[in-house]
Amino acid sequence: MTTNFWLYAGLTFITAFIGGILPVFFSFKERYLRIIVSLGAGLLLGMSLNHMLPEAAELIPEEFGAFFLIGFVLLMLLERFVMIHSCEEHGCDYHTIGIAAFAGLAVHAVIEGLALASTLVALDIGPLILLAVLVHKAPAALTLTSLLKLGGKSKPQIVKFITGIALATPAGMLLASNFFTHELVGRTAGILLSLSGGTFLYIASCDLIPELHRSNLDKYPRLFAFLVGLAVSFLELH
Questions:
Q1: Which of 41, 19, 11, 23 is nearest to 141 (CA)?
Q2: What are the start-end ranges of the E strands in the chain?
Q3: Rounded to the nearest 5 degrees, what angle is found at the Cα of 160, between the Cα atoms of 158 and 162?
Q4: Contact 141, 20 (CB under 8 A)
Q5: What DSSP character marks residue 92?
Q6: Residues 2/180, Cβ–Cβ less than 8 Å
Q7: Is the Cβ–Cβ distance between 116 and 126 less than 8 Å?
Q8: 98: nearest Cα among 169, 173, 196, 23
Q9: What is the residue-averaged pLDDT of the chain?
Q10: Quick one: CA dihedral 76, 82, 85, 89, positive or negative?
C-alpha cells in the first residue's frame, strides 16, 4: 500500500475522531457549524458532478450511469430506514436515533473509504475527494455525538461510538484495496467511483443544501461558503 493510502486513512480517522470527541467536552455555536455544512455542500455537489461522474464515465462508459443511480438510491433507502434526521410528530426517541445514526453513518463512511481507495489506484483526483470527505466528516461526527448525548450515553460510550465511526472509512479503504487486481483495476475503480458519486450527490442535494434553507441567520456567509466549495471542486490537483 502506498504512503498516500495511509496518509488518507490517517486524516479521515483523525478528522472524524476530533469532530466527534470535541462536543463531549465543549459546546459549539450552531452558526459556525452551518457555515462548515455550506462549504461541504458545495464541495460534495461539485466533486460528484465535476469529477467523479466524468471520471467514472471514462472508466466504465456503458455502466457508470446505472451504478451512479444505485449509489444515490442506496443512500436514500439507508436514510429512510436506518438513519433518522428529524423527529416524528409524536416526539423523538433520542436513544434509538443515536444508534440508528451511528449505523447509517458507519455504512456511509465505509462507502467513502471505497471512493478514496479507487481514486488512489486509478485516478488523479484523490486530494479533492479527500477534501470533500474531510469537510463532511467532522460535522457528521459532531451531529452523532450530539444525538448520543441526548440519548443519555456516557462519555466512555460516546468515545467508543466515535472511534467506530472514525475507523469506518479506513476500513472501507482496506476493503476496496482487496477488490483491485491488475486486470480489473479500471473497472473496479469506475464502479466504486460511480457508487460513491451517487452518494455524494444525494448528501449534497437532499441533506446539506436543504439545511441551508432552515434559517436566515448568516445566509450570505453560508452562500459564500457554498460557492467556495463549488469553486474548489473545479480545481485540478495532480
A1: 19
A2: none
A3: 70
A4: yes
A5: -
A6: no
A7: yes
A8: 23
A9: 76
A10: positive
Interatomic CA distance for residues 38 and 40, integer angstroms? 5
Q: For residue 81, which amino acid is it?
A: F
The burial of 193, by beta-carbon neighbours within 10 Å (0-12 exposed, 13-18 middle, 19 or more buried), is given as buried
Could you list the beta-strand ranges (E) of 69-126: none
Residue type at position 95: H
How many angstroms from the chain centroid is the CA of residue 197? 11
Which amino acid is present at 153? Answer: K
What are residue 227's DSSP bridge partners? none
Q: Amino acid identity of 218? A: D
Q: Rounded mean pLDDT of 145-174?
A: 84
Cell, residue 114: 471505497
For 237, residues 6+ apart whose C-beta sits below 8 A from its C-beta are 124, 125, 127, 128
Q: What is the tally of helices (H) and strands (E) in the chain?
A: 10, 0
Q: HSE-up of 99 (CA within 13 Å, CB side)?
A: 5
Three cell numbers, residue 132:
470533500
* Contact by Cβ (8 Å): 152, 227: no
| For residue 14, pLDDT beyond 70 | yes
Task: Please report where in the chains the cell 444515490 appears, as a residue.
Answer: 72
Note the residue count of the chain.
238
pLDDT tens for 36-48 read: 778 778 877 887 8
Kindly state the greatest CA–CA separation across the chain: 54
Query: What does the radius of gyration of the chain's CA atoms come to, in whole angstroms?
Result: 17
